[in-house]
Amino acid sequence: MAKLDLNNLTLAGARDSLRARDYSAQELTEAHLEAMEKARALNAFIVETPEQARAMAKAADARLAKGEAGPLEGIPLGIKDLYCTQGVATTAGSHILEGFVPQYESTVSSQLWRDGAVMLGKLNLDEFAMGSSNETSHFGAVTSPWRRQGSNVALVPGGSSGGSAAAVAARLCLGATATDTGGSIRQPAAFTGTVGIKPTYGRCSRWGIVAFASSLDQAGPIARNVRDTAILLRSMAGFDPKDSTSVDRPVPDYEAALGSSIKGKTIGIPKEYRVDGMSPDIEALWQQGIAWLRAAGANIVDITLPHTAHALPAYYIVAPAEASSNLARYDGVRYGLREQGRDIVDMYEKTRAAGFGKEVRRRIMIGTYVLSAGYYDAYYLRAQKIRTLIKRDFEQAFAAGVDAILTPATPSAAFGIGEKSDADPIEMYLNDVFTVTVNMAGLPGLVVPAGLSAEGLPLGLQLIGRPFEEETLFTLAQVIEEAAPKVGLPEAWWG
Questions:
Q1: Strands 266-270 and 299-303, sheet pairing
Q2: Does the annotation mark 184 as catalytic?
Q3: How do the domains of the chain map onto residue ranges?
Q4: Which of 6, 37, 226, 246 has its Cα between 20 and 30 A from that of 363?
Q5: From the candidates 106, 132, 184, 205, which is the catalytic residue?
Q6: Which are the contacts of 263, defined by CB distance < 8 A and separation ≥ 6?
Q7: Is 80 assigned a catalytic role?
Q8: Angle at CA 388, nearest 5°, toward 374 and 412?
């Protein structure tokens, strides 16, 4: 089989072909390592691990030959550089962690290796996952493999999991881990024509993942299609006694749920998601998605989520507040960057000034301010009350019989590198307007590609579900995926 064909395989297709011995895990891995070399201009990877990948692929071939294949045996994956990987540098996209090599493995990545997956390397991200475009990384911006029709302007892949989304879209790996604090799986998936799911809070362990905002962060996968994403989530999910927020309940076979009828399912359409400035392409896509689900037998109902308008400002108080606490551990004492100072306080100040980028410093200062004496009640406490009201809005909709909610994923298609990051940061924060409510309420949210903009760029739709009912989202997403026009990159995009 030609190497290009190996890169164009889906994860499910590669899994089945490896078991049929159509080719080896080593051949599949080499094809992806070669693609990574050709695509370094995208800057999707911070660290490449070719020798480790070859060793893991060789071990996978041995298990395949013995008939001892795991669920992901021989599948080449990229790992977001927020996941600690034993013996492999983990930076969180920040200068302050440059050179840090963990002596332990995150729970989620260890489960992928347990199931036979192969690690190609560590994927680029916004620094400490703080960003919506993957432009804040200390290691440079990630470039999307997509371009507007008739233009060669470099576009963002979305953030913070932009390296994950770009690598999957560009056929550099068959799937990737990602994290989502306010939309950082779903927005990049929408921008790159891939599928991404933020599971219910507590579905995947956060142990060994560098923390941004602990009550919002959740691990999840990005992959080529709905089936591949379902396969990855089954391996990533599960109870972990090392994570106090991990939920002890069985992990379903998400792939087995695919193909189920959605006849009789009730889909809510929230009026509050029609926001000023939303692209006409997005509105048209939303209506098309409604039509596809209705044609498949779903009942469509209008619903109201009245506190949606307050979600974004509340999120940008809660998340920075938690970040300011989590990032206090980076002080130059135990690991990572250390700048010399006159005394320990001077060393702290110089280390943090040199180690943190502008966006991270901005969020630390906002978070510290809203937690300070005299402002805690006015800002942080009020934001937490709004968060409770947002969660109640969803609970009331589900209690009224709604099985899932359909919304746009982003207000627009991908934008150019520098177009928003050089402007008012508030404009960049508005990219999260459709996604932050899901994190505030701890719900599962999935984005599936559903069409192209007038400029030929991918657009996605978001499905929001009841807690721990990811199977419903996968089933609904597959209906949209099968009805939507296929979204695919030009074959030789890296030329």
A1: parallel
A2: yes
A3: 3-261+415-483
A4: 246
A5: 184
A6: 296, 297, 298
A7: yes
A8: 100
Residue pair 349/343 in contact (Cβ under 8 Å)? The answer is: no
How would you write the pLDDT of the chain (495 residues) with one tens digit per residue? 444 489 999 999 999 999 999 999 999 999 999 999 999 999 999 999 999 999 999 999 999 999 999 999 999 999 999 999 999 999 999 999 998 999 999 999 999 999 999 999 999 999 999 999 999 999 999 999 999 999 999 999 999 999 999 999 999 999 999 999 999 999 999 999 999 999 999 999 999 999 999 999 999 999 999 999 999 999 999 999 999 999 999 999 999 999 999 999 999 999 999 887 788 999 999 999 999 999 999 999 999 999 999 999 999 999 999 999 999 999 989 888 999 999 999 999 999 999 999 999 999 999 999 999 888 888 999 999 999 999 999 999 999 999 999 999 999 999 999 988 666 676 777 778 899 999 999 999 999 999 999 999 999 999 999 999 999 999 999 999 999 998 777 554 554
- Provide CATH code, domain 3-261+415-483: 3.90.1300.10
Let me know how long the chain is. 495
Q: Spell out where 43-139 has E strands.
A: 45-48, 76-80, 118-123
User: Model-level pTM?
Assistant: 0.95
Other C-beta atoms closer than 10 Å to the C-beta of 410 total 29
Helix 11-19, helix 25-38: angle, nearest 10:
150
Which residues have C-beta within 8 Å of that of residue 205, sequence separation ≥ 6? 106, 107, 108, 219, 238, 239, 240, 242, 243, 246
Q: Annotated catalytic residue: which of 137, 160, 161, 412?
A: 160
